[in-house]
Amino acid sequence: MKHVAIAILNWNGIRFLKEFLPxxxxxxxxxxxxxxxxxxxxxxxxxxxxxxxxxxKIIQLDKNYGFAGGYNHGLRAxxxxxxxxxxxxxxxxxxxxxxxxxxxxxxxxxxxxxPKILDYHRRDYFEYAGAxxxxxxxxxxxxxxxxxxxxFDKNDNEQFFENEEVFWASGAAMFIKRSAYFEVDGxxxxxxxxxxxxxxxxxxxxxxxxxxxxxxxxVYHYGGGxxxxxxxxxxxxxxRNNLYxxxxxYRNGNTGIKLFRRMLLDGVAGVRFLTExxxxxxIAVIKAHFSFYGSxxxxxxxxxxxxxxxxxxxxxxxxxxxIIKAFFLHKKHFYRQLNRSSFVK
Length: 345
Prior knowledge:
Layout: E1 4-10, H1 14-28, E2 32-38, H2 45-52, E3 57-60, H3 66-74, E4 82-86, E5 90-92, H4 97-106, E6 110-119, E7 134-137, E8 142-144, E9 147-148, E10 151-152, E11 164-166, E12 173-177, H5 178-183, H6 196-205, E13 210-221, H7 232-249, H8 255-275, H9 279-294, H10 296-307, E14 318-319, H11 323-329
Parallel strand pairs: 1-2, 1-4, 2-3, 6-13, 7-14
Antiparallel strand pairs: 4-12, 5-13, 6-12, 7-8, 9-10, 11-13
């Protein structure tokens, strides 16, 4: 058994397995065991893996548990100390594992890390899901080094070469210590999809752990394999899950005031959707809030449980300003333009 295992979650994804699994095997098999966790696919995924890549281990689940549930169930059957949650639509590169593991070994409290995630289609640009490492602003809005909202930066080695502690690592290619993953009860299945990795990282940081971005390793993400970057359902998940994030994990202030402020900002976003003629997105924001109200006491209970586990809360990577104000009012569209002193160290 190797020190590291790669866990690829699959559901009827034979198209991506055919395109990307050969590269994963070629560039990873010396350093990691490779698993495919299958969410009860009905296509030919299993037969393809068994025929073409017998060295890949298959964990067959009895039904489709979604992203969070699939990993929670699948990782129980993977014994390796470190696990890489790797999307099936990610193209890895030669020697992509060793730099990350070396960085993790140099930081004893670091239990999660991502490589640089570049765009498969525009290969000199960063991709939406993680880019060069994730951050969060004072209102709970997530953004990345290399991507703020829908403005994407180029992969500039001068700007994005040094490894850095961040607030969250992308679930598209996340290295995580298995024991830490289960210490915080894994991914929250109530999120269903989108932002569940931010929630996971925030819970880790509330226990004093560190999360990193290893910029000496690169992968390419195809993107949109499960949900398009923008559609009404993704908008619903985005707004609802952001409220979940704040209620469950926010510690440095009055959570009620923070939620109220965030709801006002969501209202502004909803009105903007309406004035732009995006009625389905406006409805998605309303549905997100009602879904949050319906789950409020469940999330409050999770908050209380999480708070009982807090220790040495680590806020490194939190941006103590409004990324909305910086982006839309001050026209700071790129990570390099942000005031570095505004980030918690």
